[in-house]
Design a protein that fits this description.
16 helices, alpha/beta, Rossmann fold, five-stranded mixed beta barrel, OB fold (Dihydrolipoamide Acetyltransferase, E2P), globular, binds S-adenosyl-L-homocysteine, binds iron/sulfur cluster, single chain, 3 domains, binds FE3-S4 cluster
Length: 479
C-alpha cells in the first residue's frame, strides 16, 4: 500500500508528459512547483516516478488519441508497481471529466484546467492509505480564477533563459471548429499587478526572455470592467519596470484584436520583439465566415500591410486549417493564394479534425460537407510546400547578415561548441563560436548567418571585441 510521506527521507518523484500548446507547458511548470512544495522531485524517467501525470490536449482527434496511448503504456507500469499513481490533467481531463475513469479505470486523479491549485490536495488523497479510489477536481471556481492562486505557486521552469507567463485564461471567440472555449472556459485576464510581479521576479532570477501567453493575447484586458488597460499598456509597463528582460514576446494574437496601439508598442519598444503570431486559418471568405473568425481575407491582408508598414523587419507567422467542412478545391486554392499574398515567415498547419462538442463537429456528424482524409492530406501537403517555398524566399534575405541571437543552449546535434538560439524575429539559428570552453546560454550574441533553410539558419558567432569577451579575456590573461 502506498503511503503518502511528504517528509520521507527519500523524495518522491514525479514525471509529467506535456502535450498541446505553451499554455499547457506553463501549467506543467506550475504543477511541478506545487508538487515541489509537497516534497516531489521531477524526474525524466517515468519508470522511476511515484506519480505520473499526463497534461493533455484536445485540439484535434490525434492529440486526444496520443493521451490515451500514453495511458495504455502507463497501465502496464502500474500493473508492475501498484504503488504508483497516475493523473490526467489538461484539456481532455477538463472536457471528459469522470468519463476518463470509465475508459481508463487505472487512472487515479483527474484534474481540470482551472483546478491546478487543487493538485496537492488530490495527490494527498490519492496516496492516502484510506483512499485508493478515484479523485477528481474539474469544477471551475466561480468566484476565483487560477490567478488568485498563481502568486503562491513558484513554477519549476524548464528553461533558465526563457519563461512563459500566462496572462489570459480561456477564450471568448467560439470559432466553430475549436474546443478551447469549452476546455479552458471564457476569457479571464490576469491582473496587471500580478503579471508585473512575476516578470520582475523573473528578471531578478536572471531570465532574459518572457513570452506572454493567451489564446487571444491581444484581447488582454477586454474583460476588465470599464478599464482601458490593454496589451499595449502591459507591454509598456513590462518594458519600463523590467529592463533586465532583453526580449519580450507575446502569442497568440487574433486578427480582430491586434490594434494599431499594440502594433505601435511593438514598433516603439526596443525590447519587444518584432515577431507576431497571428493565424489566418483560411483564405476564402465563405470558409472564414463558417469558421466564425469575424474577418474577411481582405481585412487580414490590410492588417498584414499595416503591421509591415509600422514595424520594419517584422516576422509574421500563423496557422491554417485545411479541409474544413464544405471547403471546395477552389476555396482551398484561395488559401494557397493567401500564403503568396500575406507571405508568412512560418505556419502551423493542420487537417480539420471534427470535435464533437463544437458547431462544426455537429455538422460533420450529420455528414455535412465532410472532406475525405485523403483529400485533406493532399491539401495539407500542397499547402506545406507553398509555405516552405515562401519561408525560404523570405529567409534568403538573412544570408550574410549579422543578427542578434539569444542563446538557448547547445545545438541539438551536440556537436562540439555548436550552439542554438533565436533571432529577434524568432528564427532558429545553429551556430559555431570561435570561443570554446564558455557557456553562452542566456547571452545575446552577434551571429553571422552563413546558410539559410526554410525553418533554420546556420551561422558563426562574431565576438565584437575579443577583449570584451570574458572567456577570451581569461584565456589571454592566463596565456
Ligand atoms: N487562439 C488561436 C489558436 C488556438 S488553437 C487562434 O485563434 O488562432 C491552435 C490551432 O489549432 C488553431 O490556430 C487552428 O489552426 C488549429 N485547430 C484548432 N481547432 C482545430 C480543429 N478542430 N481541427 C484542426 N485544427 C484545429
Ligand atoms: Fe479557438 Fe477561435 Fe478561441 Fe482561437 S480564437 S482559441 S481558434 S475559439
Ligand atoms: Fe490543446 Fe488545450 Fe492548448 S486543447 S492547444 S492544450 S488550450
Amino acid at each position: 500500500m502506498a503511503v503518502y510521506r511528504p517528509d520521507a527521507a527519500e523524495a518522491r518523484k514525479v514525471y509529467i508528459e506535456t502535450l498541446g500548446c505553451q499554455m499547457n507547458q506553463n501549467d506543467s511548470e506550475l504543477m511541478f512547483g506545487l508538487l515541489a512544495q509537497e516534497g516531489f522531485e521531477p524526474t525524466d524517467d517515468r519508470k522511476d516516478a511515484d506519480l505520473i501525470i499526463i497534461n493533455t490536449c484536445q485540439i484535434r482527434g490525434n492529440a486526444e488519441d496520443k493521451a490515451y496511448s500514453y495511458l495504455g503504456a502507463w497501465n502496464k507500469l502500474k500493473r508492475k508497481n501498484p504503488d504508483i499513481r497516475i493523473a490526467m490533467a489538461g484539456c481532455v481531463a477538463q472536457q471528459t471529466k469522470d468519463e476518463v475513469f470509465k475508459r481508463s479505470p487505472f487512472v487515479d486523479i483527474v484534474i481540470g484546467t482551472q483546478n491546478i491549485h487543487d493538485l496537492p490536495n488530490l495527490v494527498r488523497k490519492a496516496f492516502s492509505t484510506d483512499n485508493t479510489g478515484h479523485v477528481m477536481a474539474v469544477d471551475k471556481q466561480k468566484a476565483r480564477s487560477t490567478y488568485d492562486y498563481i502568486a503562491d505557486i513558484a513554477p519549476v521552469r524548464q528553461s533558465k533563459t526563457s519563461a512563459w507567463v500566462t496572462i489570459i485564461e480561456g477564450c471568448d471567440y467560439f470559432c466553430t471548429y475549436c474546443v478551447v472555449p469549452y476546455t479552458r472556459g471564457r476569457q479571464i485576464s490576469r491582473p496587471a499587478a500580478s503579471i508585473l510581479d512575476e516578470v520582475k521576479q523573473l528578471a531578478d532570477s536572471g531570465y532574459k526572455e518572457i513570452t506572454l501567453l493567451g489564446q487571444t493575447v491581444d484581447s488582454y484586458g477586454k474583460d476588465f470592467d470599464g478599464q482601458r488597460y490593454g496589451l499595449a499598456h502591459l507591454l509598456e509597463d513590462i518594458h519600463e519596470q523590467a529592463p533586465e528582460i532583453a526580449r519580450i514576446r507575446f502569442m497568440t494574437s487574433h486578427p480582430l484584436d491586434l490594434s494599431d496601439e499594440i502594433i505601435r508598442a511593438v514598433a516603439d519598444l526596443p525590447r519587444v520583439m518584432e515577431f507576431i503570431h497571428i493565424p489566418m486559418q483560411a483564405g476564402n471568405n465563405a470558409v472564414l465566415e463558417r469558421m466564425r473568425r469575424g474577418y474577411t481575407k481582405e481585412q487580414y491582408f490590410d492588417l498584414m500591410d499595416r503591421i509591415r508598414d509600422m514595424i520594419p523587419g517584422v516576422a509574421i507567422s500563423g496557422d491554417f486549417i485545411v479541409g474544413f467542412p464544405g471547403e471546395t478545391e477552389a476555396q482551398f486554392q484561395e488559401t494557397l493564394d493567401a500564403v503568396y499574398r500575406s507571405r508568412p515567415d512560418a505556419c502551423n498547419t493542420a487537417s480539420y479534425s471534427a470535435r464533437k462538442q463544437t458547431p462544426a463537429g455537429i455538422w460533420e456528424t450529420k455528414g455535412e460537407g465532410v472532406i475525405s482524409e485523403a483529400e485533406k492530406d493532399d491539401r495539407l501537403q500542397r499547402l506545406n510546400a507553398v509555405i516552405a517555398e515562401v519561408a525560404l524566399s523570405i529567409n534568403q534575405g538573412y544570408a550574410d547578415q549579422t543578427v542578434e541571437v539569444l542563446v538557448e543552449g547547445k545545438s541539438k546535434r551536440q556537436q562540439f561548441d555548436r550552439w542554438r538560439g533565436r533571432t529577434r524575429t524568432n528564427k532558429v539559428v545553429n551556430f559555431d563560436s570561435p570561443v570554446s570552453g564558455h557557456d553562452f546560454t542566456g547571452e545575446l550574441l552577434q551571429v553571422k548567418i552563413t546558410g539559410v533553410g526554410a525553418w533554420a539558419f546556420q551561422g558563426v558567432h562574431q565576438p565584437a571585441d575579443q577583449t570584451d569577451n570574458p572567456a577570451i579575456a581569461t584565456a589571454t590573461a592566463g596565456a
